[in-house]
């Protein structure tokens, strides 16, 4: 799975992307140039808790992204965890992610 790593790419997604929210996660989706492979980023803010808490949130997000079929060609997607992500199963988060992807029209 290709991931977004550079600050410049994150800023581009924030500038050009659209945001979609759910109680289990938030996503930001930005289109890429024609033919580019899609990429994904997983974010857990420090305000959520300690490193163990944040790492669990990112593990749940990674598994949910695999289940939901990310990355999608032609789109960069950033997944943000919430407090509810930690206590949810990857299947629940994947279901919420599929709903958000549907709302985004992907």
From TrEMBL:
<keyword id="KW-0255">Endonuclease</keyword>
<keyword id="KW-0694">RNA-binding</keyword>
<dbReference type="Pfam" id="PF00825">
    <property type="entry name" value="Ribonuclease_P"/>
</dbReference>
<dbReference type="InterPro" id="IPR014721">
    <property type="entry name" value="Ribsml_uS5_D2-typ_fold_subgr"/>
</dbReference>
<keyword id="KW-0540">Nuclease</keyword>
<keyword id="KW-0819">tRNA processing</keyword>
<protein>
    <recommendedName>
        <fullName>Ribonuclease P protein component</fullName>
        <ecNumber>3.1.26.5</ecNumber>
    </recommendedName>
</protein>
<dbReference type="GO" id="GO:0004526">
    <property type="term" value="F:ribonuclease P activity"/>
</dbReference>
<dbReference type="InterPro" id="IPR000100">
    <property type="entry name" value="RNase_P"/>
</dbReference>
<dbReference type="InterPro" id="IPR020568">
    <property type="entry name" value="Ribosomal_Su5_D2-typ_SF"/>
</dbReference>
<keyword id="KW-0378">Hydrolase</keyword>
